[in-house]
Amino acid sequence: MDDSGGVQMARTLKHAALCLMLLPRFLLAAVMLWLLDFLCIRRKVLLKMGERQDGPDDPPVCVSDYNKMFTWESLRAVWHGQKLDFLKSAHLGQAAPNTEVVLVQERKQRVVRQYADIADFLVVYIEEAHPSDGWVSSDAPYQIPKHRCLEDRLRAAQLMLTEIPGSNMVVDNMDNSSNAAYGAYFERLYIVMDETVVYQGGRGPEGYRISELKCWLEQYRKELLVSQTAVLCV
Ligand SMILES: *[C@@H]1O[C@H](CO)[C@@H](O)[C@H](O)[C@H]1NC(C)=O
């Protein structure tokens, strides 16, 4: 076997090991999606998920009745997401990957945010979770096909900016480096402090919890106040 054959072999083995490791989780998700296509089950699950919400901050997961959950495209999307999650380089307490992003538009931030005094917010727009030529969702506000070039992605990000004006937004590069490093697909929340990941949210949509993020920030603000008071007392 020559050298390139060996490399090829190692790659194939690595891929096979990865597939084996991800298989149980994937099969579970596939069964869930299949079950969710029975409307009575779907309504019950969505209701349960709604009840579990910690507060009004977390957007409820909404799926209209006529959206199919168990399709070739949905399985591909779930597999893709689980693989990204497994291979991501961002881990709690470790250095935050400094991936390349592209600025969408410079805009003066005028929205007064609850935590603007202690944190800067940045939206990194990644690949579409529900592209119109993939796992289609009629619940999405816009029907956007898969981005084929950076211009496609920037155009779609502009649409998103109109929904949340004043936010700081960048887009992932076309290598999808941020998505890969942070296991961001479908959506995910992070807090980075001093270049370290200090909060890592779960994989969206189920794990996407703004309430959790707020909780972390509240706690942080409290600690800041305490340390400031301590300094003043000296
Ligand atoms: C990045 O994601 C886009 C979909 O938005 C896809 O078309 C492209 O092939 C991906 N790039 C790489 C290097 O995988």
UniProtKB/TrEMBL annotation:
Full protein name: Iodothyronine deiodinase
Role of this protein: Responsible for the deiodination of T4 (3,5,3',5'-tetraiodothyronine).
One BP annotation, GO: thyroid hormone metabolic process
A molecular-function term among this protein's GO annotations: thyroxine 5'-deiodinase activity
Keyword Ribosomal protein: no
Residues that span the membrane, as ranges: 15-39
Superkingdom assignment: Eukaryota
Organism, as annotated: Nothobranchius furzeri (Turquoise killifish)
Keywords: Membrane, Oxidoreductase, Selenocysteine, Thyroid hormones biosynthesis, Transmembrane, Transmembrane helix
Family: Belongs to the iodothyronine deiodinase family.
